[in-house]
Design goal:
Layout (H helix, E strand, L loop, with lengths): L13 E5 L17 H9 L10 E11 L3 E3 L6 E2 L20 H13 L5 E3 L4 E2 H10 L7 E7 L4 H11 L7 E7 L13 H16 L3 H9 L7 H4 L9 H10 L4 E9 L2 E8 L1
Parallel strand pairs: 1-8, 2-7, 2-8, 3-5, 4-6
Antiparallel strand pairs: 1-10, 9-10
């Protein structure tokens, strides 16, 4: 086997990033600095990559289907799937292209892994995609395919989906899970949830940073973690599952926490594999 040349190796890491609250980065908030640290982190991601990605596969907590599905249109529209925000936030633009050939390849890889893969030419890009990517890659010049979660929310299936896609990384494809490490709508803004979110975040970070085999096993059993269901209520863990896809796609790469901040009394973190 010929080792890759570090100078030309474009193998991408995989990421799990928080995408904030609706269009929070593009509007006034109280306090005004609430999302600044997270926005700065997202803006800095591109500079940490080995090269400019050839494409992005993004898994959003805002698209669930009975079968793993991918956006397959050449120019998916934006889906403004947030409500009650200022009018200008429904005029945000992110005019990046889709990548139908990559979408077909992803669907095939998921089929080969006996997970099922469906191409959806009608589905657009939801805010779990375009809100963070407007900060991460503001030029909108990298094609994107969005991958759904599976509506049964099975942890093992989402890790396996990530594993099925890990080979894309060697082709310069950046795999991004977009969600929130804490996502209990009743907890945001409630100081009682500060220690609760801290406890879960400590467990989650330790799980991510263990050896890959133990990591995947721990993440499959995330419901057993301290305060897990206070941070992600039953049938509402869709914002955590993109992390499991990213971890699966990380393969044997070591995981680590790359960002953490307290927003609205809750701890929110980001992770990287590779």
């Amino acid at each position: 086997m010929i080792a890759s040349d570090p100078a030309t190796d474009r193998t991408m890491p995989t990421l799990f990033v928080p995408h904030g609250a609706g269009p929070c980065f593009f509007m006034e908030w109280n306090p005004p600095t609430a999302w600044n640290a997270m926005a700065d982190f997202l803006r800095g991601i591109a500079a940490t990559l080995p090269a400019k990605p050839t494409a992005i596969v993004l898994i959003s907590g805002h698209w669930l289907q009975s079968t793993f599905s991918v956006t397959s249109a050449a120019r998916p529209a934006l889906v403004y799937d947030y409500h009650g925000f200022p009018p200008h936030t429904y005029e945000l633009r992110y005019p990046t292209a889709g990548e139908p050939r990559l979408a077909a390849r992803i669907a095939g890889l998921l089929e080969d892994a006996s997970l099922g893969g469906h191409e959806d030419a009608q589905r657009g890009f939801d805010h779990g995609m375009f809100i963070p990517l407007k900060l991460m890659f503001p030029d909108a010049d990298i094609p994107v395919v969005q991958l759904s979660l599976r509506s049964d929310l099975d942890p093992q299936a989402h890790i396996e989906a990530g594993r099925a896609l890990q080979g894309l990384r060697k082709d310069g494809v950046l795999i991004v899970g977009s969600g929130m490490s804490f996502h209990n709508m009743r907890g945001y803004g409630d100081p009682r949830f500060a220690p609760i979110s801290d406890e879960f975040d400590h467990w989650l970070s330790a799980a991510v940073e263990t050896a890959p085999a133990q990591r995947d096993l721990a993440l499959q059993r995330w419901e057993q973690a301290p305060s897990a269901r206070l941070c992600h209520p039953p049938r509402a863990e869709e914002h955590l599952l993109p992390l499991l896809v990213a971890a699966g796609a990380g393969g044997d790469s070591i995981g680590r926490k790359v960002f953490s901040d307290r927003v609205m009394h809750t701890t929110l973190s980001a992770y990287r594999f590779g």
